[in-house]
């Protein structure tokens, strides 16, 4: 989703995006096709992802993919490596976040000048949550400042065309919200009578999520589209 938005945003801004994906014969994990794809590329925007909560799977994917991308970028003279990360990735010890931390470590120590943009959860995350379950929708207790994915895509493209900044200020949305309440609002807007079941994850991770570990730690850019505006814009479909 965010990759398509980045490509569309770059194209609308007059740039010529090169898609790096298995669907076009390029594999980040093995490195197949990377050198050819990065030929004459000025900047890379890495929004690659793996869907997992398992620490080992996340660390392995982001470690391999990031190393391949950085090494190929170094060989081909890429001037700027931009990566999307997560606000709170260094404060919440979630399995998936361990992989994102590994990704950041590799970029910070890699051969290509870089910018790392940490962003909060997308508005779209609420729509992904309701795809799970049946009549009862389990939703993790977590506080965030959610942001529209298209605003994150715009910020990534704007970063890519400027000089590398290292760790950029954290990007967050305009409102602080609880994820269960976001899901309830979306279900109501869609006319659904499904029941939201707030679930606190066990242990320290649950405490960190519910206690604001995913909120920005300092000042930084803020998106403008509220969650309610996002629901209205997407026609209640989530697309």
Feature tags:
single chain, alpha/beta, 8 strands, two-stranded parallel sheet, 239 residues, 9 helices
Task: Give an overview of the whole structure.
The protein is α/β, with parallel strands linked by helices and 239 residues long. The chain is 40% helix and 14% strand. The chain is built from 9 helices and 8 strands. The protein has helices at residues 2-12, 34-37, 55-76, 95-108, 124-129, 149-160, 179-189, 203-210, 227-233, and strands at residues 43-46, 80-86, 114-119, 136-140, 143-144, 166-167, 177-178, 195-199. The strands form 3 sheets. A 4-stranded parallel beta sheet has the order 1-2-3-6, with helices on both faces. The radius of gyration is 18 Å and the shape is globular. The termini are close together. The model has no long low-confidence stretch (mean pLDDT 94).
- List the total number of helices: 9
As residue ranges, the low-confidence spans are: none
> What level of helicity do the residues show?
25-40%
Strand content: 5-15%
Radius of gyration, in angstroms, nearest whole number: 18 Å
Widest sheet: strand ordering? 1-2-3-6
Largest sheet, described in full? 4 strands, parallel
Helix/strand/pairing class, anyone?
alpha/beta
- Total strands: 8
Order of helices and strands: HHEHEHEHEEHEEHEHH
CA(first)-CA(last) distance: 10 Å
Overall average pLDDT: 94
Question: Which shape, going by the Cα principal axes?
Answer: globular
């Amino acid at each position: 989703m965010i990759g398509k938005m980045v490509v569309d945003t770059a194209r609308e801004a007059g740039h010529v995006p090169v898609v790096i994906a298995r669907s076009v014969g390029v594999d980040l994990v093995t490195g197949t096709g990377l050198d050819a794809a990065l030929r004459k590329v000025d900047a890379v925007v890495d929004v690659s992802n793996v869907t997992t909560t398992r620490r080992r799977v996340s660390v392995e994917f982001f470690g391999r993919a990031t190393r391949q991308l950085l090494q190929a970028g170094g060989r081909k003279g890429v001037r700027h490596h931009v990566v999307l990360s997560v606000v709170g990735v260094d404060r919440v010890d979630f399995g998936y976040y361990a992989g994102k931390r590994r990704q950041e470590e590799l970029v910070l120590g890699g051969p290509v000048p870089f910018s790392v943009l940490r962003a909060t959860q997308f508005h779209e995350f609420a729509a992904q949550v309701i795809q799970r379950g049946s009549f009862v929708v389990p939703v993790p207790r977590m506080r965030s400042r959610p942001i529209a994915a298209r605003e994150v895509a715009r910020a990534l493209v704007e970063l890519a065309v400027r000089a590398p900044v290292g760790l950029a200020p954290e990007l967050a949305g305009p409102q602080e919200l609880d994820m269960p309440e976001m899901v309830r609002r979306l279900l109501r807007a869609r006319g659904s009578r499904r029941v939201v079941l707030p679930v606190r994850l066990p242990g320290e991770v649950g405490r960190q999520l519910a206690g604001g570990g995913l909120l920005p730690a300092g000042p930084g850019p803020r998106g403008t589209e509220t969650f309610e505006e996002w629901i209205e814009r997407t026609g209640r479909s989530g697309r």
